[in-house]
Write a structure and sequence with these properties.
By secondary structure, this protein is an alpha+beta fold. About 30% of the residues lie in helices and about 15% in strands.
Length: about 725
Amino acid sequence: MYSLFFIFILYHVTVLPFLTQADEKYKICVVSNYNGNDKTKTHCPALSRQINSEVECEFANDRTHCIRKMLAGDADFGVFQPEEISYASQWNDFLSVTNEIRLSENEDFDYSMVVLVNEESNIRSLNDLRGKRLCHPGFAEGVAGNGRSNSILQYFEKTIVPQKCNSEMSIIENQVQSLSEFFGESCKAGQWDPNPDVDYTLKTKYPKLCALCKNPLACSSNDRFWGRQGALLCLSDCFGDISWARLSDVRLHFNGDGINTCSQISFLCPDGSLQPLNATNPCTWISRPWPAIVARKSAATSIQKMINYSNNAKELKNTSSWQWSLNNLLIHYFEPITSNVIKSPKEYLSEFPGYFNSESENNKCTSRTFSMCTENSDAFKKCQTLSDIAVTYGIEPNMNCRQASECGQELENGESDVMILDADRMASYKRMYHTKKTVLYATSLYHRMYRKVSAVMLKKKAVKSLEQLRGKIGCFPLFDGFVWNSFLITSKLEKLDLSPNNSTIKHFFSNSCAIISSDQNAVPSCQYDDIFPEESNKKGLLWETLALRCIIEGGGDVAFVNTHHIDNYLGILKTPMNLQDNFSALNFTTVCGSNYSRSPVDCPLSWSHFGQIIVNPNLSPLVEYEIISVLLTMDATFGRKSEFADTLPPVFLMYGPHDNVADPLFPVDTEKLETVSQLSEHQVPIIPEYETHLLLLNQYNDVPKSSSNLMISQYPLLSLLNYLSIFIFILH
């Protein structure tokens, strides 16, 4: 009897997880995925409902946020991709890997990369590779977390090809030139550079790397020889001598029906030896780790025991059990693997051949960096996260983040290279600094949105013209921001005031206030007795929300806000103000200027892009080009791909909140970065453009015109000049 009792106790101590308190639960960090296949909607409530559940969900903005939540003690564990584990290795002493998430328990790697050679090419060693024809799948494209990264895709060429760092060439061109000089006619289709103009110029300058493609002139991702399958077709169709491919793809390709190779194909090993295509354990060059469960080090042992038990628990047959819900949150198309070994992030990644060092493999340009200036600690933290996670995806050169009280001064002094300027700070920047060089614009997908402002009133108080607003009470979000100055511009255009300045608003309205005012003499701050919770500003809309509140409560007559967001504003205000369910955007109207011949649904006063990426005007063309390239690559990797949600939870939200703070780095509503050339392909609103019309205001008459003042109105000319400068720079 004693022995049975002992066995029972031993079983529960060694197999079942234990909690220090009866009501304590481990927190699994999860990220919502708004694509209609969001597991958190089903399984997180189920974990909370089960009385005996040992787990509950902790929500985060993205997967890097989950790692920081674990470091702060707000979450205990989560599932992470290898690139995210590499990011987490900065805190190697505080985090642990407990269990892998595998497709098959017998497969040691997510995938491995191999080199295939056509034996008729007489390749018998690594020394025979020079001058041969390469079939390459191309640079990484698609959403972060899909398993493709440049660190892996470029591993073979960076290992074999002597890398250069010509100080007069970008990192990308150094790599392309090195590849072109080493191999013969090849096919590396797809995008080489995220800037379309630069991409075209590079392919014009190095046509040998497109010569084997089915459509060498386009050399695009639509080519038959692009991508994982394309690189193998290029080899098996006998266009090339060498192919860089996934081992699993090789097995499928050469075992499939209808594949007739024109010669014998072999594996080329890192030591230069050859293995037959039917080798049972072929040599590989680099292997990608499986996703894995990462936990706080202090809780790792208990969490590993819980995962091990849940893997085989009889409760998994019960779809209402907490074990079943946990298992569904853990599996990312794969299954957790039982493990009794706990490793640090670095130890885990180091077990996979070639992977941990792939980020810096044979990179001769490690000293190449540029600096991004930020003006507050939240922006600096997000900038640093973006920089760190970009490294794990092989994005070069590195971006160093700086924090300063005045980034404009940093740029003028040459202490920083680039900054992000939103529309609200445009006016003050142009007053203080003599030059502004814009290289990228913060825009929306498909140009479906712009920053706009309208004069909004409750329908029951509405007037018919802007002139009839004279003597009313105006509510503004921010003094000297986009909205404030847009009204001053409108005052000039509508002849409400022929010489508008900050005193105009005080004299035009009987009373006014701004939610944020740095000049109480010009306009006092709006006064509210209550304070809205922090989550009210998660989308960065609180200032305009409170301006709208100003007219709902009866303190003001007209609010100057963006009508595109009225439903969002009301969503924030509904509970605090106890608004009725039928109180909606239909309760409001806008006041139109004289340029509107009929009364439209909305008539904005002006428009602007959300912001601009501006650089030190004294930067060399090379540094400027690399800044554009890196930021566009970051945008393609971590930005939004469509107005519909991506299929995977985001690795990092380039545009969105960071650590529960409304986006501190990029302007509200930003979804994409675009060059001047790309902007020229789109129509813009016919209402006054904000930056150009700032010169109408008296306070700008003595400010020298910057080189970017004509960018909006003369897109075609600027696009041509921009393209020619890039072409000349690369051909130099």
